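Q: Please design a sequence for this.
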């Protein structure tokens, strides 16, 4: 052979002394960037590495090195159109001095100025994340995804979203952070990122074991899409693995609002349950673990179309939540203030979500709405405290008028509920029997001491 040209298109050439010479690699001078070869003819050859002229960093899988033609697979390591197979090194002359394995997946470079730089090649990161997911180390995978701004869908798509469903409980248990889980829930989309965003990495990351899992059909998931199925599994895991708390309830509402289509009816039912706990006169310890109705509804409106929430509340005859959603709508950032949008909203209101007169649940909706207007236990305590302060300040007249007004309101509200409940079974309503004045007088005679514990006897 007349000369030696190093593999991978290194431009330096060595003129050999004899054709039958055999070269063996001897040493590498990192400081001067040179290779040394020993010859069978007792010569020593030195070559200056010129590969740094390209300033490219390639990440090659060990299996490609052992079993494949690496040079042809990576186009002999020359700059090409596909820029995803290499990384541009920022400083000319930088050298690789170390590699961090495991969850770090970093390459340490030494620049000519002798400073060290740490870079995170995308291929190494994705490989580490997939390896963590295959090993069921969901927390490590999620932390890497958040730190390096990788798409959250990789946690679900690495071996098919159906294979993720049985692991949802383990995922929630390991992560154990409701903020991270909420961020994950809001990022789920009905697409496979290995068919779009990370398509060029699919053959490198999808292992044979994960392919078998992805091809396996799971019962009960064929009729649901990816978003709905994954969020349903996460919601069940939250209810089973996480203790009741304000954050858990908001996270569950997020899974309902982000479903495809949004499960607004179920979300409103959960908010209605919170409303019923607020109206309960007894001090319920469970109530402390839930957000307020206003906070829950505000969270739902922030994640959903306010008009859709309004119509869903009307269709389910949740009048109190309906009124709150409309009042909250004005202060929600998702509502446009333009005249055209308002006109379109009004047209939608006229066409949808109306309560038809004579419908079976019309009376029930009315009674529920009246019950929602009742004085809550917290309001009674505050009212009694206010009356006590007025009496202590020698404002008995003002306190007496306030007590009379509040008593009149409470009697009217209780009389209206009793009237509606008595009139519901009747097909015909006698106006002389079923009238508010008659029921107010009746409720005055039958005043329940428990309902009026806030009153001060000195003002009677």
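A: Design:
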């Amino acid at each position: 052979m007349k000369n030696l040209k190093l593999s991978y298109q290194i431009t330096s050439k060595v003129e050999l002394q004899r054709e039958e010479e055999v070269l063996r690699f001897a040493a590498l001078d990192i400081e001067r960037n040179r290779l040394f070869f020993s010859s069978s003819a007792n010569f020593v050859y030195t070559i200056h590495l010129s590969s740094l002229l390209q300033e490219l960093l390639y990440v090659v899988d060990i299996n490609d090195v052992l079993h494949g033609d690496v040079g042809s697979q990576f186009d002999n390591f020359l700059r090409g159109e596909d820029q995803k197979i290499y990384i541009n090194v920022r400083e000319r002359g930088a050298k690789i001095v170390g590699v961090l394995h495991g969850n770090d997946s970093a390459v340490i470079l030494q620049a000519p100025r002798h400073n060290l730089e740490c870079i995170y090649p995308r291929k190494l990161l994705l490989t580490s994340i997939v390896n963590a997911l295959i090993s069921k180390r969901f927390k490590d995978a999620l932390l890497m995804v958040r730190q390096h701004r990788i798409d959250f869908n990789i946690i679900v798509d690495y071996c098919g979203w159906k294979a993720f469903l049985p692991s949802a409980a383990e995922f929630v248990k390991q992560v154990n952070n409701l903020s991270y889980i909420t961020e994950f829930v809001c990022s789920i989309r009905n697409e496979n990122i290995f068919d779009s965003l990370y398509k060029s990495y699919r053959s490198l990351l999808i292992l044979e074991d994960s392919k078998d899992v992805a091809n396996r059909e799971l019962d009960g998931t064929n009729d649901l899409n990816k978003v709905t199925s994954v969020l349903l599994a996460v919601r069940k895991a939250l209810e089973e693995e996480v203790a009741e708390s304000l954050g858990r309830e908001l996270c569950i509402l997020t899974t309902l609002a982000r479903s495809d289509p949004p499960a607004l009816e179920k979300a409103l039912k959960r908010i209605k349950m919170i409303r019923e706990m607020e109206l309960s006169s007894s001090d319920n310890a469970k109530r402390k673990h839930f957000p307020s109705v206003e906070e829950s509804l505000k969270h739902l409106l922030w994640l959903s179309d306010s008009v859709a929430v309004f119509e869903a509340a009307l269709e389910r005859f949740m009048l109190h939540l309906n009124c709150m959603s409309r009042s909250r709508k004005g202060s929600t950032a998702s509502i446009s203030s333009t005249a055209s949008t308002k006109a379109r909203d009004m047209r939608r209101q006229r066409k949808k979500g109306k309560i038809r007169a004579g419908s079976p649940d019309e009376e029930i909706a009315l009674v529920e709405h009246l019950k929602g207007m009742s004085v809550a236990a917290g309001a009674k305590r505050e009212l009694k405290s206010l009356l006590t302060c007025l009496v202590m300040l020698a404002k008995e007249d003002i306190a007496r008028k306030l007590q009379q007004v509040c008593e009149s309101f409470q009697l009217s509200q209780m009389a209206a509920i009793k009237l509606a409940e008595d009139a519901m079974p009747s097909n015909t309503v006698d106006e002389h029997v079923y009238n508010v004045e008659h029921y107010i007088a009746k409720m005055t005679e039958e005043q329940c001491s428990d309902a009026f514990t806030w009153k001060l006897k000195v003002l009677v």
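Q: Thanks. Anything notable?
A: The two ends are 118 Å apart (CA to CA). Residues 1-13, 211-221, 328-344, 347-355 have pLDDT under 50 and may be disordered.
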